[in-house]
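subagent[fold] <- orchestrator: predict structure for attached chain, return tokens only, no commentary.
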Amino acid sequence: MSMHGDGIDAGAVELSQVRRLWHLLEPLHAVLYYAPEVFEEAAALGYDTKERWPSYFPLRAAPLGPVGAERVASAFYSFSPRMVAQHIDSAWAIAEPGAVLAARLRGIDRAYRAIFGDRVDSPELAEAAALARSAAEAANTAGRPLAAANAEAQWPEAPHLQLWHAATILREHRGDGHTAALLVAGLDTVESLVSFAAIGAASVERFQSRGWSAGEWEAARERLTARGLVHGNGEATDAGRDLRHRVEHHTDQLAAVPWQLLGAARADRLADLLGDFWVAVLSTGLLPSETTLGIGKV
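subagent[fold] -> orchestrator:
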């Protein structure tokens, strides 16, 4: 068992449970980027919703305030700065961040009610929301810009919205930690994607949707090949697989603190409660079967 920067023993909750809770909570957060109800709210603000990205960037970045593309690209890490600028440069002229934050809560309220039906008001959801909130409030947001920005927002009153808000803080907390793990591993923005594609976490096409040119992708692959991490055909070497395994392990460690503070028994109870809601979200077919997160692949 080892101690980490937050001063908590990572052995208190098994890292497999940390990863399981991420798998359960991630779809509950990700509804924000795919639900038609959220698209309708974004369209009402003036965003183009014919495709995903024009609303994705302001919906995710709004907690940061009216920041520019450089700061958003820094926080999002693996997106091409050109792609970020394409959508963020005009985002706050269409709607200010406060309006976007209100719209995303309205959209999630409607989406959750459509997905969960009467279970929105169930004691099981209320209990899950309380446990998830406890974990989210225990998260140390130092050095984690997206987690901190979401944690600073006022908690909504309704339990189902508290569940979504907690899931959002916790997934951004994990994501910020993942960026730190990539930096420690020496993987830059493009290399982080190329190396993940190299171990089969998702298709190259899925990763290239983050806006990098073919030339930038190839240059990153050549840098990784020179480091002995990727073969010439783009597949990971044993060293490359080991490095990505260390990145994922480090990410789990950095994500563990909120669950350690919640306690193993309460974390297990939350996982049990989330199962039916996780199934309900996946059963909608709203979320893509392949993502850049590598869930179920690594």
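orchestrator: received. Logging for downstream: Residues 59 and 116 are 22 Å apart (CA to CA). The chain has 16 helices and no strands.
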